[in-house]
Amino acid sequence: xxxxxxxxxxxxxxxxxxxxxxxxxxxxxxxxxxxxxxxxxxxxxxxxxxxxxxxxxxxxxxxxxxxxxxxxxxxxxxxxxxxxxxxxxxxxxxxxxxxxxxxxxxxxxxxxx
Amino acid sequence: xxxxxxxxxxxxxxxxxxxxxxxxxxxxxxxxxxxxxxxxxxxxxxxxxxxxxxxxxxxxxxxxxxxxxxxxxxxxxxxxxxxxxxxxxxxxxxxxxxxxxxxxxxxxxxxxxxx
Lengths: 113, 115
Fold this sequence. Notes:
The complex is a heterodimer of chains A (113) and B (115). Chain A has strands spanning 9-13, 18-23, 31-38, 45-50, 55-56, 61-64, 70-75, 84-92, 107-112. By secondary structure, chain A is mainly β. Chain A starts with 8 loop residues before the first strand and ends with a strand. In chain B, 0% of the residues lie in helices and 49% in strands. In chain B, strand 7 (65-68) and strand 8 form a beta hairpin. Chain A binds chain B through residues 32, 34, 36, 41-46, 49, 87, 91, 93-95, 97-106, and chain B through 4, 6, 31, 33, 35, 42-45, 48, 56, 58-59, 89, 91, 93, 95, 98-101, 103-109, 111.
């Protein structure tokens, strides 16, 4: 699976949009981008995933660049409860051991009042 | 629809005792995955099971650790003769399918403390 690079930490003001970047310059054509987050002491929470088109759900939006080498997770109106470590994971679509999610260090997003 | 359930949420054992961690997947899910998170580290894959089958246990320590997912009942992660280094958070995830991009949903975890 392709390696991802994320900033160690970010701050965001409550009510503003939080934009979390992820670089995955070695991503292959059949690899998806997944985002999870882990609020302190809780289990990882699935947020969103995509292949090449931008995706949106009730939690967030995922913007993937045309060359697919990077992506941005957008939380449109961050709240204090969004403070968490956010993980960007690249996962092959099928075959091999694609079920093994590889969690890096992620980005600690702190939402400030 | 209940999510992935794990129990106990906290478990304290003395060195040499056995630890049993349980995981009930989401309704309709037949694939279970166990991950371990050591203090200040990321989650690491341990084992992948389907009903009555271990598919991949490449992340499991070779000794003292075992996992099962019986036809009836929850998946069990068993650690025999625990040592202090086993202290960690153990997370279970489940999915409806595997081999394609089916999403894994995680439980709240079991925090094991070995005294």
